[in-house]
Amino acid sequence: MNQISQKTRGRIYIFIVAMIAVTVVSGFAIVWMQQQISRTAKHSQKVEAQLAETVRKLRYLDERIATMHQPVVLQGKVAGTLRPSLENQVVWVRENDLPSGRAYAVSQPYEASMDLAFLDLSATR
């Protein structure tokens, strides 16, 4: 009476095997994705730790730079070499002309300050 044909039994068998295969493959895919998420999270933690260390070093350097540029520290470095100018004192600065622009004398004739603010760029054109 309730006989299922051989063809229908084959289709049901294939359908059940396909469902089991899809379930197993999906389970493996979920496990693989969880492992990838875990690896990415660990890598992100390492990168964040490196970033925090770099920020800490930069803050330390900024603090040192700010400390070194305070007027009291700068005055201490030149305390014995500078003095206030007199009212009627005239200061002459010897200027050296170079082919590439201007260079102002520093302390010796052979030393020159090559600051870009003093270069005459229009003369080189």
How would you concisely characterize the structure shown here?
The chain has two helices and three strands.
Question: How does this model look, in words?
Answer:
Helix content is 56%, strand content 9%. A three-stranded antiparallel β-sheet has the order 1-2-3, with no helix packed on it. It is mainly alpha-helical. It has helices spanning 6-68, 71-77; strands at 95-98, 101-105, 112-113.
Helix segment count?
Answer: 2
Radius of gyration: 40 Å
Describe the largest sheet. 3 strands, antiparallel
Query: What is the chain-wise order of helices and strands?
Result: HHEEE
Average pLDDT reading: 80
Strands in their spatial order, largest beta sheet: 1-2-3
What is the strand content? 5-15%
Spans where pLDDT lies below 50 across 5 or more residues: 105-112
Helix content: 55-70%
Spatial separation of the terminal alpha carbons: 106 Å
Tally the beta strands.
3
Structural class of the secondary structure composition?
mainly alpha
Shape: rod-shaped
